[in-house]
Amino acid sequence: MSETEAMAATRVAIPMTLDGVSAEWLTAILQSRYPGIVVEAMDEVHLRNSHTTKYQVRLTLNEIGRLAGIPEHVCLKANWAGFDSKDICRLEARFYENFRRLVDFPAPRYYFADWADNASGQGFVMMEDLAVGGGKFGHSTDHMGVEEAARGVASLARLHGAFWDSPVLHAADWLPVSMATPTDSDQLRMMYQYAELNHPKPEYQAFLPQWIRGDLSRLHIVYDALVDFARHREQGPYCLVHGDSHQGNSYVRPDGERVWLDWQMVRKGRPIRDFTYFILGALTIEERRAHDRDLLRHYRECLVATGAQNVPDDDMFWESYRRWPPYAMQAWIANMDEWGQIGMHIVERIFTAGEDLKTVEALGVNF
Q1: pLDDT in tens, 7-17
Q2: Which of 14, 123, 249, 256 could join 93 via S-S bond, C-beta 3.0 to 4.6 A?
Q3: What is the pTM of this model?
Q4: Which domains does the chain possess?
Q5: Which residues contact 274 (CB under 8 A, 6 or more apart)?
Q6: CB atoms < 10 A from the CB of 316, how many?
């Protein structure tokens, strides 16, 4: 038996339901990284079950666990709700183990990650419990303002620069390529039933542009044109892309640092996907019209400051930015408010940006 096979044979399985999550199980799985650790007690603080499970617990650890620096309060994340979440939990766990472990960059601190190598797609991360950190979770209804948006794009630049054109990134053959994986390229088709619920609402019809107002299916044409652009014509080195960088997936620490949460859409891709998705949702229409060029220039300067080489120039970044709004269009028009992020004002911001930037024309679509 090879060393790899021996390790796989002794790997502790990750349960598929909360019934199997206990102090004894956590002890067993943590011992591969922390030999001798014992979780003496695990008490529930808060449980949030949706397409993934966020299980905030308070741990009582033996001395080995305490000396390892594991805090009393942690958040356990996996798919324990039975939701068909494909492999997003496995993807997030691999991100923490293969990237976050190597670099101190704007993502939550973590203490353990593992994943199943079978069809379950299960992954498990034990990370810091940000709810006890004294900061603030972002939300779609927050008014961020231009100055805070500038700090946000600087944070994205730090994230992108960490593995810019990196051998570590290129070697990660398990990491999906942006817009070249069905979760991206077919995302609108997967979520179309929800877009159909929002599209005919009078409040949406009041601001949607003429090209889509009477025919939602046209969004497929525009979105497919973006997929083609991203896969075949967008230029520049690859970096690590968050993939779902709206402000609701961020947290501002007490010292002002914005960190990015929910790495379930992490990708190998080009950075304007994240920049566009963040800016179009975070700024009001008036703020974005007045400041998007300056913010894009500021983002590029911050990216170069990380040491990134062969960074596209301002004009090339601008042309990519003009073409990326359809990703946000399809994501947010399919958002249901009961999922937690309030979306109609975001949809208006995004579609208005598409008109201002002449996105449809830039993608070569004619209606």
Answers
A1: 344 589 999 99
A2: 123
A3: 0.94
A4: 3-132 (3.30.200.20), 136-362 (3.90.1200.10)
A5: 156, 159, 160, 241, 242, 243, 245
A6: 15
